[in-house]
Amino acid sequence: MLVNNAGIMAPPLVRDARGFESQLATNHIGHFQLTARLWPALRAANGARVVSLSSRGHSRAGIDFEDPHFERRAYDKWKAYGQSKTANALFALALDTRGEAHRLRAFAVHPGAVMTDLVRSLPDDELQAIRTATAGTTYKTPAQGAATSVWCAANSQLEGMGGVYCEDVDLAVPVGADATTLWGVRPWAIDPSSAERLWTQSEAWTGVYQLTPTSARRATSSRRKPSARRRVPWGSPTSAGRIRARRLRRNCASSARAITETSIQADGSRGDYSARRNATTSLFSASVSFVSSTRLKNSTVSSSVSRRPSCR
Questions:
Q1: Are the CB atoms for 277 and 263 separated by under 8 Å?
Q2: Residue 110, Cβ neighbours under 10 Å: how many?
Q3: 81 flagged as catalytic
Q4: What is the number of alpha carbons within 13 Å of residue 4 lying toward its C-beta?
Q5: CA distances (Å), 191 to each of 25, 89, 186, 187, 196, in order?
Q6: Could you write out the DSSP letters of every residue in 21-88?
């Protein structure tokens, strides 16, 4: 099992060496890259589970795909935090899609309100304001906060399930975008299209593409084949060219016989048959001559084609 638990919350704007906003880089991109590097081991486990620690904070913001690193918009540390927690949930959804065929399932978890060192970036007055705003909330101990993660990682109740958001040792209830409850999962955190879009963007950010679904790889491969395949001229001296020329001659011969037989059935007279047979034979001869002349004219071109390195 793999539990992606590391995280930061609401620091001032900081960028990593790649220029990525620190909360998205730490809370999502780092976990994405770690999981990708561990993919061979997770797949070989034949039953692995990956737990992605999200938060109620996902309700603060979805993913801003136009400016995820606050390069053009003003930095808001709470929107940045919410975006990173939404990314955790979408990551689990997309990973489960890719892992299901290998018996690897992924889950997103909200651990609950736990007072830990996660708040170290907050000034005292802001921390007190949060405590006031959440008055009446039952805070969990670290062990209680870990319970849902352990449940997702090991409990047999979730056998055959994945790609779900969990809280309080249970599946979370989907709620509306404008919900004001302190529980439930917002629609932007469980949207499959957003999950795939984030996955694609994360691949570009990290340069890791090995977890692309097999179906997508096949689609990509089929799109590449036309450009990768060498185009051999008709009648060229290469083996493929000779096969094409023989096929054309055979098709011409078949057409000639078909026209002749049709003529006999339609006219019933030997004289008309002879005339049509002569015309058909002339057509067939012209076709063969065309193939032969094309073979000669394209011999120089096809030779240069055969010397090109093949595309892999």
A1: yes
A2: 27
A3: yes
A4: 31
A5: 21, 10, 9, 6, 9
A6: BHHHIIIIIHHHHHHHHTHHHHHHTSS-EEEEE--GGGGG----TTSTT-SSSPP-HHHHHHHHHHHH
How far apart CA 209 and CA 222 sit, in angstroms, is: 17
Burial of residue 90 (CB within 10 Å: 0-12, 13-18, 19+) is buried
pLDDT tens digits, 268-311: 444 444 444 454 444 444 444 444 444 444 433 333 333 333 33
**Cα–Cα dist 259/239, whole Å:** 30
- Cβ atoms within 10 Å, residue 107: 28
Token pair of 101, please? 């065929």
Helix (H, G, I), strand (E, B) or coil at 127: helix
Beta carbons within 10 angstroms of residue 44's beta carbon: 9
Sign of CA dihedral 34, 35, 40, 45: positive
* Per annotation, catalytic residue among 81, 165, 209, 273: 81
Q: What is the reported pTM?
A: 0.67
Rounded Cα distance, 247 and 49, in Å: 55
Between the CA of residue 98 and those of 94, 219, 261, 277, 303, what are the distances in Å? 7, 15, 58, 63, 44
Q: In this predicted model, what pLDDT tens digit does every residue of 140-183 receive, in sequence order?
A: 999 999 999 999 999 999 999 999 999 999 999 999 998 988 88
